[in-house]
Design goal:
This protein is of the alpha/beta class and 231 residues long. The protein has one domain (13-229): Nucleoside phosphorylase domain (Rossmann fold, 3-Layer(aba) Sandwich), CATH 3.40.50.1580. The chain is 30% helix and 29% strand. It has helices at residues 23-33, 67-80, 132-145, 165-169, 180-189, 212-217, 220-229; strands spanning 16-19, 35-41, 48-53, 56-61, 85-94, 104-112, 149-156, 175-177, 193-203, 208-209. α4 (165-169) links the parallel β7 (149-156) and β8. The mean pLDDT is 93.
Length: 231
């Protein structure tokens, strides 16, 4: 069952996989939130763990950075390892005026400047969106816990150092990151479920940002939210 990127057996993964971009954040989740955890993948240092959260079997594995990396791991998990749901737990840059550091954004949909979506050869422009049931559940849980949460459109960009985010702000896009459009598109193709939950790590139009250590371990609310909605 192993692929070039995941050296695991089919039953090694839970039906729900949490996917941060950073392998060290995957390890942080496993070490601090999962019981009876075990390492199920470490090809290229992309650490994947499976354990129990409140008695539920849950997996967490890094996606790496960018649309191509996310697309590879999402496709292999959905098509080869019996995964039904992927919840991205990542960082994003807040670009809406009302978005601040450490706010949580639930990506209802994902715009993109990437050509990736064209690979599906649709006779038009495909609009990648989240699974509504997951989105609704995440928003409800976040409100119950009193988290600062926003729901709306985000941008999945191929360019990290972009000077053009103000243009997307004009269209009421809340934040920018680099993976969700791929995740939503691949999930749709395989008829699976996906949701992107992001914590705001920087606000490029305001000149604000968290440091690397805060990005790695400071997203506890987002992690708890994802674990609570895991099937």
């Amino acid at each position: 069952m192993a692929t070039p990127h995941i050296n695991a057996d089919k039953n090694d993964f839970a039906k729900t996989v949490l996917m941060p971009g950073d392998p060290l954040r995957a390890k942080f989740v496993a070490d601090n939130f999962l019981e009876e955890k075990r390492l199920v993948n470490n090809v290229r240092g992309v650490q994947g763990y499976t354990g129990l959260y409140k008695g539920k079997k849950v997996s967490v594995m890094a996606s790496g950075m960018g649309i191509p990396s996310m697309a590879i791991y999402a496709q292999e998990l959905f098509s080869k390892f019996g995964v039904e749901t992927i919840i991205r737990i990542g960082s994003a840059g807040g670009i809406a005026d009302n978005i601040n550091l450490k706010d949580i954004v639930l990506a209802q949909a994902a715009c993109t400047d990437s050509n990736f979506v064209k690979s599906f050869k649709m006779p038009g422009t495909y609009a990648p969106i989240a699974n509504f049931d997951l989105l609704k559940k995440a928003h409800s849980v976040a409100q119950q816990k009193g988290f600062s949460v926003y729901v709306g459109n985000i941008l999945s960009s191929d360019v990290f150092y972009s000077n053009d985010v103000a243009s997307w702000q004009k269209m009421n896009v809340l934040a920018v990151e680099m993976e969700s459009a791929a995740l939503y598109s691949v999930a749709a193709f395989f008829n699976k479920k996906a949701l992107c939950i992001c914590t705001i790590s920087d606000c490029p139009l305001k000149g604000l940002e968290l440091n690397a250590g805060e990005r790695q371990t400071g997203f506890v609310q987002m992690i708890e939210l994802a674990l609570e909605i895991a099937d």
